[in-house]
Specification:
The complex is a heterodimer of chains A (248) and B (249).
Chain A: E1 7-11, H1 16-27, E2 31-36, H2 39-51, E3 56-60, H3 66-80, E4 85-88, H4 103-131, E5 134-139, H5 143-146, H6 152-172, E6 177-184, H7 190-193, H8 198-205, H9 216-227, E7 238-241
Parallel strand pairs in A: 1-2, 1-4, 2-3, 4-5, 5-6, 6-7
Helix pairs in contact in A: 1-9, 3-4, 4-6
Chain B: E1 8-12, H1 17-28, E2 32-37, H2 40-52, E3 57-61, H3 67-81, E4 86-89, H4 104-132, E5 135-140, H5 144-147, H6 153-173, E6 178-184, H7 191-195, H8 199-207, H9 219-229, E7 240-242
Parallel strand pairs in B: 1-2, 1-4, 2-3, 4-5, 5-6, 6-7
Classes of the chains: A alpha/beta (248), B alpha/beta (249).
Chain lengths: 248, 249
């Protein structure tokens, strides 16, 4: 139990990578605030944690609204006592060519992936800086490095997450607050897998050197590593979890 | 021959510095460790320390620039334990010299250990791992292979070579369920580091906190190495993971 009684917030914790992260951190003894746009999904995962003997609260949060984010930090502090770890998983994408993309669509995707990461990180800094300890883990994406046709907004936002991670890491180093990112490749979350037929999915798996998609649990392991004492002096870094994609 | 039940790691450069600390860290996780080093005495000392703590280990001597010696080390581990699950390439040398004055022999010496040695060890271990369709390889590299530094042309070239080797072999070995990654720990308080920088620079680095530009301790690398050589990183391969930003001062 490497995170015994540590307080963690996982945004987007109601499904996919967020849910896997919640369950991984809970297994190490962390107490967790599960923030999700969907109150119902957050509650379901909180119940899973409790069923496993852990402690979790569910919070309906829109990470693009600073009032929601402020309430998230308040309620977490009240219920869990402290915030040692923040994992910014909340995000999402829609497919649209730039030529067809409205300003509102751009804003929506950049806000949920990048501004949300900024707002949530900023909101936990006072407590982490005050205690001169803490770990923030952001979720970027392989598309932040490769780009992806019909996902210009998402690609830009996820590249932005990497720049934000490096800059905040430098600002926080004197306070010994660590800030890192995980960049997942193709991960078989129920939502993503549901976007494709079997044939389309196979076509996307074929170029991956490991010849398979990753599992949400494999991202959760990387998040746990970067949130735990195992990575005590690592900051500003991005860990690629992609089965060897990006290599040729 | 009966395979041992526990996982087996071969740690090249296991006789001192980061390699010795990693050997101890692996042993604490229940992994049997074959520590190999240019100095067989230092490797045996690492092994004896592990055995005293209740672990399983033995030491071997090897000059990794020599193919026959590398093959013999792998054969010795296999004849003793029947398997190699993990290879850690932690042997390396550092020296300084301006390119104008650098003797060809010094270029060859550094490249033969830092790059060719890594190739030979990886090749010998991979042959075995390919047969078992299972294995994890981790090489210690340096951010200097990415960023470079004055009077370190040979060292930087060797470490950049390690990156290319790692990326290439990750793709080549992925079909055999072998993952290969490299980590660049940054300035670390070892005899090699102390011996290659002016004393006042070393002292200043050691006084600073690692998150604020200070040198780390070998112990700080254990958690990261364990992540890369265990199931925790089961979807991670071909990564050159720098523990500190290579471009930061």
């Amino acid at each position: 139990m490497e995170l015994k009684d540590q307080g963690a917030i996982v945004t987007g914790g109601g499904g996919g990578i967020g849910r896997a992260t919640v369950l991984r951190l809970a297994r190490e003894g962390a107490v967790i605030a599960i923030a999700d746009l969907s109150a119902e999904n957050a509650r379901t995962v909180a119940e899973e944690v409790r069923a496993g003997g852990g402690k979790a609260i569910a919070l309906p949060v829109d990470v693009t609204r600073s009032s929601d984010v402020a309430r998230m930090v308040e309620e977490t502090t009240k219920s869990l006592g402290r915030i040692d770890i923040l994992v910014n998983v909340a995000g999402g994408s829609l497919q649209k060519a730039v030529a067809e993309m409205s300003e509102e669509e751009w804003d929506f995707i950049v806000d949920v992936n990048l501004k949300g990461t900024f707002l949530c990180s900023k909101a936990v800094l006072p407590t982490m800086m005050g205690r001169r300890s803490g770990a923030i883990v952001n979720i970027s994406s392989i598309y932040g490095f490769t780009g992806n046709a019909t996902r210009a907004h998402y690609s830009a936002a996820k590249a932005g997450v990497v720049g934000f991670t490096k800059a905040l890491a430098q600002e926080m180093a004197p306070y010994h607050v660590r800030v890192n990112a995980v960049a997942p490749g193709r991960i078989a979350t129920p939502r993503v897998r549901g976007l494709y037929t079997d044939e389309e999915w196979k076509k996307r798996i074929d170029p991956i050197p490991m010849k398979r998609a990753g599992e949400p649990d494999e991202i959760a392991e990387a998040v746990f590593f970067l949130a735990s004492p195992a990575s005590i002096y690592i900051t500003g870094q991005t860990l690629h979890v992609n089965g060897g994609s990006l290599l040729y | 021959m009966v395979e041992v039940e526990r996982k087996v790691a071969l740690v090249i450069g296991g006789g001192g510095g980061i390699g010795r600390t990693l050997s101890q860290g692996l042993a604490q996780r229940g992994i049997a460790v074959a520590a190999a080093d240019l100095s067989v005495e230092s490797a045996e000392e690492t092994a004896a320390g592990i055995v005293r703590q209740g672990g399983e280990a033995f030491g071997l001597g090897v000059n990794i620039a020599k193919k026959s010696e590398v093959q013999k080390v792998v054969e010795d581990v296999l004849s003793r334990w029947g398997r190699i699950d993990i290879l850690i390439n932690a042997a390396g040398i550092l020296s300084r010299g301006s390119v104008a004055d650098l003797p060809e022999s010094e270029w060859d010496r550094v490249l033969s250990v830092n790059l060719k040695g890594v190739f030979l060890c990886t090749q010998a271990a991979a042959r075995h791992m390919v047969g078992r369709r299972q294995g994890c390889i981790l090489t210690l590299t340096s951010g200097r292979g990415e960023a470079g530094f004055p009077n370190g042309s040979h060292y930087s070239a060797s470490k950049a070579g390690v990156s290319a080797l790692t990326r290439t072999l990750a793709v080549e070995l992925a079909p055999y369920n072998i993952r290969i990654n490299a980590i660049g720990p940054g300035a670390t308080d070892t005899a090699m580091y102390r011996g290659n920088s002016p004393a006042e620079v070393v002292e200043a680095r050691l006084r600073r906190h690692p998150l604020e530009g200070g040198a780390g301790k070998p112990q700080d690398i254990v958690g990261t190495a364990l992540f890369f050589v265990t199931e925790a990183s089961s979807y991670v391969t071909g990564q050159i993971f720098y523990m500190k930003d290579p471009h930061a001062s």
